[in-house]
Amino acid sequence: MSPISLKQQLSTLPNNANSAIVSSIFVDTLLNFLGFDAGQVYPQFPTRNRSNPVDYAASKNNDFLETQSNPYLLVEVKKRDNNASYKQAVKQLKRYLHPSSVNCKSAKWGIITNGDYIQLFRKHERVV
Q1: Dihedral, 11, 17, 20, 26 alpha carbons, nearest 10
Q2: What is the pLDDT of residues 84-95, one digit of tens each?
Q3: Structural domains in the chain?
Q4: Taking the model in full, what pTM does it have?
Protein backbone atom coordinates (compact mmCIF):
# COMPACT_ATOMS: atom_id res chain seq x y z
CA MET A 1 0.00 0.00 0.00
CA SER A 2 1.36 3.41 -0.90
CA PRO A 3 1.26 6.65 1.10
CA ILE A 4 -1.12 7.92 -1.58
CA SER A 5 -3.63 5.30 -0.46
CA LEU A 6 -3.36 6.59 3.10
CA LYS A 7 -3.98 10.12 1.82
CA GLN A 8 -6.96 8.89 -0.17
CA GLN A 9 -8.40 7.21 2.91
CA LEU A 10 -7.91 10.37 4.96
CA SER A 11 -9.65 12.45 2.32
CA THR A 12 -12.79 10.31 2.69
CA LEU A 13 -12.83 10.67 6.48
CA PRO A 14 -15.60 13.06 7.61
CA ASN A 15 -14.51 15.98 9.81
CA ASN A 16 -16.82 14.81 12.60
CA ALA A 17 -15.94 11.09 12.31
CA ASN A 18 -16.42 9.11 15.51
CA SER A 19 -13.85 6.52 16.58
CA ALA A 20 -15.68 3.67 14.81
CA ILE A 21 -15.56 5.53 11.49
CA VAL A 22 -11.89 6.50 12.01
CA SER A 23 -11.20 2.81 12.67
CA SER A 24 -13.00 1.42 9.65
CA ILE A 25 -11.84 4.02 7.13
CA PHE A 26 -8.34 4.88 8.34
CA VAL A 27 -6.90 2.53 10.98
CA ASP A 28 -7.43 -0.67 9.01
CA THR A 29 -5.56 0.97 6.10
CA LEU A 30 -2.82 2.24 8.44
CA LEU A 31 -2.24 -1.20 9.94
CA ASN A 32 -2.08 -2.71 6.47
CA PHE A 33 0.41 0.00 5.46
CA LEU A 34 2.51 -0.95 8.51
CA GLY A 35 2.63 -4.54 7.25
CA PHE A 36 -0.08 -6.24 9.27
CA ASP A 37 -2.68 -8.28 7.42
CA ALA A 38 -6.21 -8.93 8.68
CA GLY A 39 -5.20 -12.21 10.34
CA GLN A 40 -2.64 -10.38 12.47
CA VAL A 41 -4.96 -7.70 13.85
CA TYR A 42 -7.32 -8.25 16.79
CA PRO A 43 -9.96 -5.55 17.36
CA GLN A 44 -11.09 -4.89 20.94
CA PHE A 45 -8.16 -6.85 22.38
CA PRO A 46 -8.53 -7.55 26.12
CA THR A 47 -5.68 -5.98 28.12
CA ARG A 48 -6.28 -6.99 31.73
CA ASN A 49 -9.91 -7.81 31.70
CA ARG A 50 -12.65 -7.93 29.14
CA SER A 51 -14.21 -4.69 30.35
CA ASN A 52 -11.31 -2.48 29.22
CA PRO A 53 -10.01 -3.58 25.79
CA VAL A 54 -7.58 -1.66 23.59
CA ASP A 55 -9.10 -0.77 20.22
CA TYR A 56 -6.59 -2.85 18.22
CA ALA A 57 -3.67 -5.15 18.91
CA ALA A 58 -1.42 -6.44 16.16
CA SER A 59 1.29 -9.07 15.94
CA LYS A 60 3.35 -10.63 13.17
CA ASN A 61 2.43 -14.06 14.56
CA ASN A 62 0.21 -15.80 12.04
CA ASP A 63 -1.72 -17.52 14.83
CA PHE A 64 -2.33 -14.28 16.78
CA LEU A 65 -6.11 -14.35 16.39
CA GLU A 66 -6.19 -17.91 17.66
CA THR A 67 -3.74 -17.59 20.56
CA GLN A 68 -4.72 -14.04 21.52
CA SER A 69 -1.28 -13.56 23.04
CA ASN A 70 1.93 -11.62 22.49
CA PRO A 71 0.77 -8.48 20.69
CA TYR A 72 3.52 -6.28 19.28
CA LEU A 73 1.54 -3.09 18.67
CA LEU A 74 -1.45 -1.55 20.46
CA VAL A 75 -3.64 1.10 18.82
CA GLU A 76 -6.08 3.39 20.60
CA VAL A 77 -8.48 5.24 18.28
CA LYS A 78 -10.27 8.46 19.12
CA LYS A 79 -12.89 10.49 17.29
CA ARG A 80 -11.56 12.98 14.79
CA ASP A 81 -12.16 16.12 16.86
CA ASN A 82 -10.97 14.63 20.13
CA ASN A 83 -8.43 17.21 21.29
CA ALA A 84 -10.07 17.72 24.68
CA SER A 85 -9.32 14.25 26.03
CA TYR A 86 -5.81 13.80 24.62
CA LYS A 87 -4.20 13.50 28.07
CA GLN A 88 -6.75 10.84 29.00
CA ALA A 89 -5.92 8.90 25.82
CA VAL A 90 -2.21 8.99 26.69
CA LYS A 91 -2.96 7.68 30.20
CA GLN A 92 -5.14 4.98 28.70
CA LEU A 93 -2.44 3.79 26.29
CA LYS A 94 0.23 3.88 29.01
CA ARG A 95 -2.04 1.72 31.16
CA TYR A 96 -2.36 -0.79 28.30
CA LEU A 97 1.43 -0.85 27.80
CA HIS A 98 2.15 -1.17 31.53
CA PRO A 99 3.63 -4.51 32.69
CA SER A 100 0.52 -5.13 34.81
CA SER A 101 -1.56 -5.50 31.63
CA VAL A 102 -1.27 -9.26 31.60
CA ASN A 103 -2.24 -9.83 27.97
CA CYS A 104 -0.02 -7.02 26.64
CA LYS A 105 3.36 -7.63 28.28
CA SER A 106 4.99 -8.31 24.91
CA ALA A 107 3.72 -5.09 23.28
CA LYS A 108 6.62 -2.85 22.25
CA TRP A 109 4.73 -0.03 20.54
CA GLY A 110 1.55 1.94 20.99
CA ILE A 111 -0.27 4.35 18.70
CA ILE A 112 -2.92 6.95 19.45
CA THR A 113 -4.72 8.31 16.40
CA ASN A 114 -7.78 10.32 15.52
CA GLY A 115 -7.05 10.29 11.78
CA ASP A 116 -5.55 13.78 11.87
CA TYR A 117 -2.70 12.88 14.20
CA ILE A 118 -0.76 9.72 14.84
CA GLN A 119 1.39 9.56 17.95
CA LEU A 120 3.77 6.66 18.39
CA PHE A 121 4.87 5.41 21.81
CA ARG A 122 7.69 2.96 22.43
CA LYS A 123 7.94 0.83 25.55
CA HIS A 124 11.41 1.05 27.11
CA GLU A 125 11.84 -1.81 29.54
CA ARG A 126 9.23 -0.86 32.14
CA VAL A 127 8.76 2.83 31.33
CA VAL A 128 6.44 4.13 28.64
Answers
A1: 20
A2: 577 888 888 988
A3: 3-122 (3.90.1570)
A4: 0.88
